[in-house]
């Protein structure tokens, strides 16, 4: 009963470490898909435009303090508040390129010591992406990139724990792309992977849900 037949749509999710280049690549991908005649939108989590998103944003910029469980649930709530719009967009044939999703929620919160399964629980029932792409970069290399160090989680030791958690979450269906290649090479690989996925989703595919 939960399965809804999809028409022209796909959801592609980018978890990853900070500064791996996902924001740059996600917007390039949307332009690429549009150039291929596809309807596509760029989404990102946290979505800082909502009232929940603003609470998350002040936490990340260290202007407010919150208990680790509380901020985890806020990140999850921020995805739930967008869930029905996400489903509507997909049903009407728009592909969504999503910069971070539930995987980041679990990888970052459990790096603080929260129980892994507890972190997954509030994500249960959110839409499962058609494709997850992991932009692979070491915490050390990421730290050498522009703008690193401004927000709460931008510390190498913490990012190492996050990287280990992504290894636990990662399954064989994830596509892993080396994020240390030149930006244009990463872009080219992503275009191929993503266009393939978008095309296969056009054949019609039922929705599935995390974490099943
Ligand atoms: N978080 C969480 O705890 N729980 C959750 O549920 C979610 C998130 C969803 C904010 O996320 C924090 O929230 C994040 C996880 C946590 N914390 N951390 N760390 P965010 O996504 O809003 O912010 P971010 O991870 O800090 O992303 P970012 O700063 O936007 O970085 P990016 O998207 O990975 O990279 P970029 O902006 O595209 O590029 C960074 C720089 O590298 C820039 O100067 C580029 O020109 C350069 N770059 C990009 N690609 C390359 C290549 N290939 N070579 C060389 N240089 C490059």
Automatic annotation (TrEMBL):
One of its GO terms (biological process) is dTDP biosynthetic process. Residues 17-189 form the Thymidylate kinase-like domain. Keywords: ATP-binding, Kinase, Nucleotide biosynthesis, Nucleotide-binding, Transferase. It comes from the Eukaryota. The keyword ATP-binding applies. One of its GO terms (cellular component) is mitochondrion. Gene3D superfamilies: P-loop containing nucleotide triphosphate hydrolases. The keyword Kinase applies. Its EC number is 2.7.4.9. It is an enzyme of class 2 (transferase). Pathway: Pyrimidine metabolism; dTTP biosynthesis. GO terms for molecular function: ATP binding; dTMP kinase activity; nucleoside diphosphate kinase activity. SUPFAM superfamilies: P-loop containing nucleoside triphosphate hydrolases. NCBIfam families: DTMP_kinase. HAMAP family: Thymidylate_kinase. PANTHER family: THYMIDYLATE KINASE (PTHR10344). Belongs to the thymidylate kinase family. This is Thymidylate kinase. It comes from Quillaja saponaria.
């Amino acid at each position: 009963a939960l399965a809804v037949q999809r028409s022209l749509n796909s959801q592609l999710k980018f978890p990853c470490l900070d500064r791996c280049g996902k924001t740059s690549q996600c917007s390039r991908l949307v332009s690429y898909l549009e150039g291929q005649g596809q309807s596509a939108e760029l989404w990102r989590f946290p979505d800082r435009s909502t009232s929940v998103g603003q609470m998350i944003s002040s936490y990340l910029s260290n202007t407010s303090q919150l208990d680790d469980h509380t901020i985890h649930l806020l990140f999850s709530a921020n995805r739930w508040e967008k869930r029905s719009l996400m489903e509507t967009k997909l049903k009407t044939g728009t592909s969504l390129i999503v910069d971070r999703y539930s995987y980041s929620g679990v990888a970052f919160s459990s790096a603080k010591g929260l129980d892994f399964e507890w972190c997954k629980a509030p994500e249960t029932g959110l839409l499962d992406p058609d494709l997850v792409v992991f932009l692979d970069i070491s915490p050390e290399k990421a730290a050498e990139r522009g703008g690193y160090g401004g927000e709460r989680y931008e510390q190498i030791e913490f990012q190492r724990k996050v990287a280990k958690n992504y290894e636990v979450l990662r399954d064989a269906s994830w596509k892993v792309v080396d994020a240390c290649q030149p930006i244009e090479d990463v872009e080219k690989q992503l275009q191929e992977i993503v266009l393939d996925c978008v095309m296969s989703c056009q054949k019609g595919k039922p929705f599935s849900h995390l974490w099943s």
